[in-house]
Predict the structure.
Amino acid sequence: MSDRKLVENIGAAVNSRSLVSAWLYDSDSGYPDRYVYRNEWLAAFRNYGFTVDNEPTEPLSSPLLLHRGASESCRDGIGWSDSLTVAGFVAFLGAEHTYREPGSVWSAEVPPENVLAVIHHAARFPVGGFTEYVVDPTSADIRRAEPQVQEACRRQVTRYVELAGALRAVAG
């Protein structure tokens, strides 16, 4: 999909109450800034209003500790999780087989007014279902997770890759 077409789709999605669908299916939600500028996504989500699974609801009332797997240059992206496991998989799984640079696990306490949407994903990820938070990271204090956390996440991904390889070998 062209960048211009996606921007048009985002505008239409806000009007038709289907912005989360545009986020999930019209872009690669792991890298939405590649398709539409972050400020456009943030403006669209703010205009859309706070939602949980695309349903309008009352905004959150307290800050959240959230995590993100990303390279240093992408640490302030807008897709976050409350799971260190998910952040670890995003940071470390597949970086050696893709164009992206290896990542780290980042953590931030995000003020409630900066959490723009909550999206519960079904088992679309190696770790099963997970919750994604669309956030405006502007005022968040984003910090690289401690080295022992990075290493634990990396080991978990390594074990997953080894197990997946063994299962593929057995399956034939």
User: Anything to note?
Assistant: Residues 147-171 form the longest helix (25 residues).
